[in-house]
């Protein structure tokens, strides 16, 4: 559907400190297994899943195995992370995973992705984010394509959408703003990381994002087995379910 194009990335193809450790973890480790009891009822075997901020693919691997007859779109704008993600997908033979070199936001365009660099020379690629870096330390940057969830749903010709996981370092509210029509149409379950510091960096907040989803017809639940309802905005991984689907 979409392939990696040329990017102005200083680390594309470069061997860095920590690269092989990142490859090993992505290929051979499986994180988030404790969420399987939570995810199984929400991701049927033929599900369509968006892994927004796919990183090195730990969630994508989990989703792919839960939906062997479905499709997982691993959305990751960072070329270093995609290099690791592609390897993990290929070696694990996850034929139902498609990697999309994009970021999701409130409007289409281009943006600067900021990637922290550790003192060892290894990339803190799990902390890469759109916009300026607000902490001390070395960084590298990359220009990336931004689209909206609504535009992407049309581009992919989606006829169903069961689940979205979003961990995009503060741009989760922008993603929701750009996906109102898609959420209203498909009412997918959402697993969203809420971090006040990160959201504030993007001009958003936990409370604003929380109430936006409530207004869109969602109800918050603890992102853990049991799905206890939550009535007060809080940080962490929070599950949002469409009220009529609970």
Give the structure's gist in a few sentences.
The chain has helices at 19-28, 36-39, 58-66, 79-91, 149-155, 172-177, 180-186, 196-201, 206-215, and strands at 48-52, 71-75, 97-100, 103-104, 109-117, 129-130, 138-147, 163-166, 189-194, 218-222, 236-242.
SSE blueprint:
Elements lengths: L18 H10 L7 H4 L8 E5 L5 H9 L4 E5 L3 H13 L5 E4 L2 E2 L4 E9 L11 E2 L7 E10 L1 H7 L7 E4 L5 H6 L2 H7 L2 E6 L1 H6 L4 H10 L2 E5 L13 E7 L4
Parallel strand pairs: 1-2, 1-8, 2-3, 4-7, 8-9
Antiparallel strand pairs: 5-6, 5-7, 9-11, 10-11
Could you walk me through the main structural features you see in this protein, from its secondary elements to its overall organization?
Helix 1 packs across helix 4. The N terminus is likely disordered. The protein is built from nine helices and eleven strands. With 246 residues, it is an alpha/beta fold. A seven-stranded mixed beta sheet has the order 3-2-1-8-9-11-10, with helices on both faces. Strands 4-7-5-6 form a four-stranded mixed beta sheet. It has a domain of 161 residues: Vaccinia Virus protein VP39 (Rossmann fold), CATH 3.40.50.150. The longest helix has 13 residues.
């Amino acid at each position: 559907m979409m392939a990696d194009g040329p990017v102005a990335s200083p680390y594309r193809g470069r061997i860095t400190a920590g690269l092989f450790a990142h490859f090993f973890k992505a290929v051979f480790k499986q994180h988030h297994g404790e969420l399987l009891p939570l995810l199984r009822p929400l991701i049927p075997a033929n599900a369509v899943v968006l892994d927004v901020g796919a990183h090195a693919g730990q969630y994508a691997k989990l989703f792919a195995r839960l939906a062997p007859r479905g499709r997982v779109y691993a959305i990751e704008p960072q070329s270093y992370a995609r290099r690791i993600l592609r390897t993990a997908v290929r070696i694990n033979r996850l034929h139902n995973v498609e990697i999309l070199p994009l970021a999701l936001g409130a409007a289409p365009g281009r943006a600067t992705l900021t990637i922290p660099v550790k003192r060892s020379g290894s990339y803190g690629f799990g902390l890469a984010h759109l916009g300026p870096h607000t902490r001390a330390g070395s960084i590298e940057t990359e220009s990336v394509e931004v689209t909206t969830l609504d535009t992407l749903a049309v581009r992919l010709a989606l006829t169903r959408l069961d689940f979205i996981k979003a961990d995009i370092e503060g741009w989760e509210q922008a993603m929701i703003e750009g996906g109102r029509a898609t959420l209203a149409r498909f009412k997918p379950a959402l697993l969203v990381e809420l971090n006040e510091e990160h959201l504030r960096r993007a001009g958003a907040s936990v409370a604003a994002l929380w109430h936006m989803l409530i207004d869109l017809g969602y109800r918050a639940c603890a992102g853990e087995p049991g799905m206890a309802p939550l009535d007060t905005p809080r940080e962490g991984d929070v599950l949002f379910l469409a009220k009529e689907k609970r």
